[in-house]
Automatic annotation (TrEMBL):
Domain of life where this protein originates: Bacteria
Provenance organism: Leptothoe spongobia TAU-MAC 1115
Protein name: Uncharacterized protein
Amino acid sequence: MGKQLKFWFLATLTTLMVLAGSILQMGEPLMATQTFSDIAIADQLYIQYPDIPRAPEANTTLLSRFIDYHLNTQARPAHYHLDWELSMADYLDAAYGNRAQQSSTVAYTDKQTMKDLSRQQRHDLVRSLEQRFAQ
């Protein structure tokens, strides 16, 4: 009886440790998958920066797609300025990971629209995104 009790105790403890590790490891991406808040933040930014084109496609806008790219595709935290800068650089230069399912015209339009913004506009946008998610 003692060996069986020790086995079940160790098996239960191991299972709990594995589950706790999985939850801790996936904590940030799970918090980042809030599409409703992404769209709401994008809409707030369009009010703040009316000169940024919306480039709508399938119930999304340029900024909501950029926020999705940052949080879900790149799985970067939302409250660090440097991470937003890295995502902006990736968004302008890199091929898009999960954007293969979208038409290449949309990806090209997003990239071109972001490139058409001035450097100061992109910097202000990144700063505003960081501030909105820090609230």
